[in-house]
Amino acid sequence: MFDVFENYLNNHGIFDYEDFDLIRSVSFCKKLNKKDYLLREGDICRHKTFVCKGCLRSYRIDKDGTESILNFAIERRWINDDVNFQIGEPSSTIIDALEDSEVIQWSNENFRMLLATIPSFNLFYRKHLEESLNEKQRRIISILSNNAQERYEEFINNFPKLYNRIPLYMIASYLGMSRETLSRARSIPQYTRYHHNRESILGATY
Amino acid sequence: MFDVFENYLNNHGIFDYEDFDLIRSVSFCKKLNKKDYLLREGDICRHKTFVCKGCLRSYRIDKDGTESILNFAIERRWINDDVNFQIGEPSSTIIDALEDSEVIQWSNENFRMLLATIPSFNLFYRKHLEESLNEKQRRIISILSNNAQERYEEFINNFPKLYNRIPLYMIASYLGMSRETLSRARSIPQYTRYHHNRESILGATY
DNA sequence: CGATTCTTTGAAAACAGTCAATCTGTGTGG
DNA sequence: CCACACAGATTGACTGTTTTCAAAGAATCG
């Protein structure tokens, strides 16, 4: 299982055997069956988690009882359990497996040790954080400036290896729309395109 | 100007005189008048930017010509110019000043040098990135699961020092709603107290 | 002042959400 | 192999919210 992570790291920096030995010595591998929880609501324990195989999601239960999916993670991606909310918020993050999965975890303490000890690991992680920030910013922009159908198309393009492995209603939740709206966006893409054309023609007339 | 940043850093880690000397030696201070651009559309130059005084915003022009505000930054906050988009996207990030402002900038190259040289600076910046990630994740959740009134109320609570310094239509843009919708959300009796506060502050102080 | 800029309001249209019923595919047990 | 349950997806009718367009009011600034 660890070789997946070793391969991943080799694609993101230069590491030697000593580095890998140290990293491996504080890694905890975990196997999950589909529907198993990695983190239940209320758990306080915080980890860094890397997905070697399978697919996981993080989500919350809103005040009205509906699920809001924060993120998906397939193989060679990270999944966070560290989204803190204001005091008084009723729910926190939940993580579970959408497929039989394998993950590697590090306690935050050990992860900090690795960052302080291995310069190229530190460098890699900073780049990773900055790229994650950009990814989230792009998602915000997409929600703010695109309609249902555009957001779905963007999702397909951004996650070509993911979109056909998860049920549509989860994609709808991730995109912030009802499953019915996503269903309709998928079924009549021509309508929306036509409609946009009409708007731009109208816009050009004055 | 640099003393604001020195004070900020002292609140986020332990630094000695040598550290500050090194940091100062690669800092570039800039004064901006209201409406000045810090980064125009199409500029390739990337920096890390810290706001010492005033208020800035980053935004994009969408394909239909409307502005989407990504972030605001007041004193003791950072403002990013590094949101990369897919190839073919027509527009990129723009940053301008909403008030007369003072900022400190570092080239990405010098910033990397600081991170590699000063361990506590590296530690501080990583915490900062992780907190920024959480902030963006919270914003995504807020957009996905709250309506117009709730999002406005949350904005007021989250940015008490910011909300009465910028025009409402910019808040609307940041929250992903039309200015008219925000205006109506504010006029609901439940929220008029904010309205009154703002008016009295404006009337008394400015 | 006048000229901007910003905010509010009204009415109509577009859009997404909700509820309920139906359809589809998959896997299980008899 | 069939019948069945079940999870997921779709569709229609209806409701509610937000956007859009247009106009008019405030506030601000030179």
Question: Mind explaining what this structure looks like?
Answer:
2 copies of one chain form a homodimer. Chain A is α+β, with helices and mostly antiparallel strands and 206 residues long. Chain A has 2 domains: 2-129, Jelly Rolls (Sandwich); 146-206. Helix content of chain A is 48%, strand content 21%. Chain A has 8 helices and 8 strands. In chain A, strands 1-8-3-6 form a 4-stranded antiparallel sheet. In chain A, strands 2-7-4-5 form a 4-stranded antiparallel sheet. In chain A, strand 4 and strand 5 (67-74) form a beta hairpin. In chain A, helix 3 packs across helix 4 (119-145) and helix 6 (168-175) packs across helix 7 (179-187). The longest helix of chain A has 27 residues, at 119-145. Chain A is globular. The N and C termini of chain A lie far apart (62 Å). Mean pLDDT of chain A is 85; it is low at 190-206. The interface between A and B is medium-sized, with 32 and 33 residues. Chain A binds a DNA duplex (30 and 30 nucleotides) through helix 7.
Summarize this, please?
Chain A has helices spanning 2-10, 17-25, 108-117, 119-145, 148-158, 168-175, 179-187, 189-204; strands at 28-32, 37-39, 47-53, 55-61, 67-74, 77-79, 94-97, 101-107.
